[in-house]
Amino acid sequence: MAEVSRTAIEQAIQRWTEPFLGMDLLTAGAVERIVTEDRRVRILLRLGFPVGRYQVQLRAGLVDVVTAALPGIEVTVEVGWRVTSRAVQVKLKPLANVRNIIAVASAKGGVGKSTVAANLALALADEGARVGVLDADIYGPSQPRMMGVAGRRPESPDGKSITPLENYGVQVMSIGFLIEEEAPMVWRGPMVTQALTQLLNDTRWQDLDYLVVDLPPGTGDIQLTLAQRVPVSGAVVVTTPQEIATLDARKGIRMFQKVRVPVLGVLENMSIHTCSQCGHAEHIFGEGGGKRLAEEEGVVLIGALPLDGRIREQADNGRPSVVAEPDGRVAELYRQAALRTAAQLSKLAAAPSSPFPQIVVED
């Protein structure tokens, strides 16, 4: 039998749309090399986002589509990934030891933004990335409790900088570590922005691929100032389905557009509720609001998370869903949202230069 041609293999690869990138792997530039020998084909992939867990599914999907298009050949797929720095706002430089900052915003309180931020960070770490969380909600810091590090205090080895706490493989920093949990923050806007920039810049982040920043709700002076001072690679806007929430989420999208921060997508939280007793499913807060918002604003719908009491319970207990039930349905939805977020970020323009050497991960 004649050796299969490279062109035929490339055409076969293009038949499959990678679900998180939204395009085929050849068009995405993820095919690093194709090696053929008789009727054996070896495809080497290099993606721009972490695929530690997902690579098994990715490999199987590509093998299936190529063997279906070219019967009789033996296909093997090798997967590697490398996270590189993406461009940030004009006049701002990427933070030292942090390749990319992802802002998680809601523009409206009560939509589960902090829970989403924690689980997205944990899901990215679960895929093999080095991840940190910065709790930028100075008035209502919740990440210490959610990430299971409440009551602990970070150390300062030199009296000028702070070493972040770590749990579940994620580095965490919050103003909540420096005050009593029930103490109110009666600060004006300038004090808040100064506190946040100090937390961001004075924390000894250690070689992060992603720093997830849990922004406070709203689109006022504080949020705008933070968006202008923090070198953000991309933003995720969290909403619930009802119109009053999507109206505010739209304002959040427009705020990021004003400061030239790419919106990676919209995540719809509390999308549907399934009764734990009878199994009846109901759209308590309306249906499809996040999807409509994403379509109207020309961004990706990153995911839709259910209204589930266990999500709240797990976050309150310091074990968010991704670590509390790693093989559960909710954790899988968070992982899909995290992969889609990282994949969308990988498609953006690269930063002019990288602050430190890149790390290549092979399977």
| Contiguous helical run count | 11
What is the overall pLDDT average? 89
The rounded Rg comes to: 21 Å
General shape: globular
> How far apart lie the N and C ends?
31 Å
Which class of secondary structure composition applies to the elements?
alpha/beta
Q: What report would you give on this structure?
A:
With 363 residues, the protein is α/β, with parallel strands linked by helices. It contains eleven helices and 14 strands. The strands form three sheets. Strands 6-7-5-8-4-9-10-13 form an eight-stranded mixed β-sheet, sandwiched between helices. Strands 1-2-3-14 form a four-stranded mixed β-sheet, with helices on one face. Helix 5 runs parallel beside helix 6. The longest helix has 18 residues. The two termini are 31 Å apart. About 2% of the residues have low confidence.
What is the strand and helix layout of this fold?
Layout lengths: L5 H8 L17 E7 L2 E8 L7 H15 L4 E8 L16 E8 L7 H14 L4 E5 L7 H4 L18 E3 L2 E5 L14 H14 L5 E7 L6 H9 L4 E6 L3 H16 L4 E6 L4 E2 L6 E2 L6 H9 L3 E4 L4 H8 L4 H4 L4 H18 L14 E2 L1
Parallel strand pairs: 2-3, 4-8, 4-9, 5-7, 5-8, 9-10, 10-13
Antiparallel strand pairs: 1-2, 3-14, 6-7, 11-12
Helix pairs in contact: 3-11, 5-6, 7-8
